[in-house]
Amino acid sequence: MNISARITDERVTDVHCDADTLTVDLADGRSISAPLAWYPRLLAASPAQRANWQRAGGGYGIHWPDIDEDLSTEGLLRGAQAARAA
């Protein structure tokens, strides 16, 4: 019996946004896309602010310093939306 282990690497390699979508490329070749509407701070940000991102959490997170937004690859893979303001 041959058992194959799937090797995944959920660290961020690139992040890009268009007018409607956030796309995060992972080290294992996958890409995660989500609607910007799920992340109100990103939606309201300028293209320059969205483009100014940094890897965080050992590469498993993304930080946008201009808008103080943080997302994790774990949350993106789960389809977690940003918490709504109370």
Largest sheet: 3 strands, antiparallel
Radius of gyration: 14 Å
CATH superfamily annotation: Uncharacterised protein PF10387, DUF2442
The percentage of residues in β strands lies in: 25-35%
Total number of β-strand segments?
6
Q: In the residues, how many domains can be counted?
A: 1
First and last CA, distance? 54 Å
Number of helices: 3
CATH architecture: 2-Layer Sandwich
By CATH reckoning, the class would read: Alpha Beta
- CATH topological fold name: NE0471 N-terminal domain-like
Q: List the strand order in the largest sheet.
A: 1-2-3
Report the uncertain regions. Answer: none
Average of the residue pLDDT scores: 92
Structural category: alpha+beta
What does the overall shape look like? globular
Main attributes of the structure:
86 residues; alpha+beta; 3 helices
What topology emerges from the helices and strands here?
Elements: E1 12-17, E2 21-26, E3 31-35, H1 40-44, H2 47-51, E4 54-56, E5 61-64, E6 69-72, H3 73-78
Antiparallel strand pairs: 1-2, 2-3, 4-5, 5-6
Molecular structure report:
The model has no long low-confidence stretch (mean pLDDT 92). This protein has a 3-stranded antiparallel sheet. The protein has a 3-stranded antiparallel sheet with strand order 4-5-6. It is 19% helix and 33% strand. It contains 3 helices and 6 strands, in the order βββααβββα. It has a single domain, classed as NE0471 N-terminal domain-like, CATH 3.30.2020.
